[in-house]
Amino acid sequence: MSDDEQRAEGGPGPARRAPVWLILGVVASALVVCCCSALIGLTVSWAAGLFGPR
Questions:
Q1: In 3D, which of 10, 9, 29 has the Cα closest to residue 21?
Q2: Using CA atoms, how far apart are residues 51 and 42, in angstroms rounded to an integer?
Q3: Whether the Cβ atoms of residue 7 and residue 13 lie closer than 8 Å to each other
Q4: For the chain, how long is the longest CA-to-CA vector?
Q5: pTM for the whole thing?
Q6: ∠ CA 20-22-24 to the nearest 5 degrees?
Q7: Is 44 left (phi over 0), alpha (psi -120 to 50) or beta?
Q8: What is the pLDDT of residues 1-54, one digit of tens each?
Q9: Ramachandran quadrant class, 2 (left: phi over 0; alpha: psi -120 to 50; beta: rest)
């Protein structure tokens, strides 16, 4: 079966792989944003003395 026949039948191709990479990119970006915001929050809390002895 040639590539043209696979495309005509709607077989796997680059157009079908793109959404998977898009979803993985969005998930990875969300994880980076969450981790960075958590680190910023911990840094601000530590700088404000919330983790020190009372």
A1: 29
A2: 9
A3: yes
A4: 74
A5: 0.57
A6: 70
A7: alpha
A8: 566 655 556 555 555 556 888 999 999 999 999 999 999 999 999 999 988 776
A9: beta
